[in-house]
Fold DNA-binding response OmpR family regulator.
Amino acid sequence: MRVLVVEDERVLADAVAVGLRRESMAVDVVYDGDTALEHTAVNEYDVVVLDRDLPGVHGDDVARSLVNESYNGRILMLTASDGVQDKVEGLTIGADDYLAKPFAFAELIARVHALGRRSAPPLPPVLERGGITLDPANHLVRRDGREVSLTPKEFAVLQVLMRARGTVVSAEGLLEKAWDENADPFTNVVRVTVMTLRKKLGDPPVIQTVPGAGYRL
C-alpha cells in the first residue's frame, strides 16, 4: 500500500511516516498543500492522510481538488477540531474518514488499513491465495499454516502480488506500490526482494516470473 502523509507539523508527520513504514507501507511525506497536489498529480496513492489546517493550499482545498479530479485514493482527514460540525464539513468536502488530534496511533493504522482495502478493488481483511494467508492488520503471513517471517518490504511486495489476484504485476508496478519516491528505479532491488521472498515462502514456488512482463502469484 502506498500512502501520502500531508502534515505541516514535521515531527508529527515524520513520526506517522515511520509508524506506517513499520506496517510495510510505502510512505511519502510533504508539509504543505501545494506540494501535496504536486505529488498526487504524478503518483497514485491508496490513501492520503491529510491535515486540514495546512499552509499554502488549505487541506479542504486539497481534498476538493482530489475529489473533482476523481482521484482513486482515499482521504483520511486529520484535524485539531473534533466537533460534530467539523467532522460533517470534512466528510462533505470529500474526505472518506476523519480523525481528530491527538489520536491513538493504533487507531490511525486501523483506519488507513480499512481505507486501503476500499481503494479499489474491494478486498477482504485477510488475503488468501495459493495456500498463503496475509493479514495486514496483524502483519502476519502463513503458508499452509506455517508462519513466515518477512521484512516490511517483503511483506509489502507479497501484499501487492496477492492484491493483484493472479494478474501480472510489472517490476515498475511493484516499485511504485511497495517503495516510496526515494527508491532508485534503476537498481535491481525489486528482483532481489522477490528472490528472497520466494525463498522464504518455500517450495513449491508460488511467485512466477513472467519474462518481459513482471511477476505473478
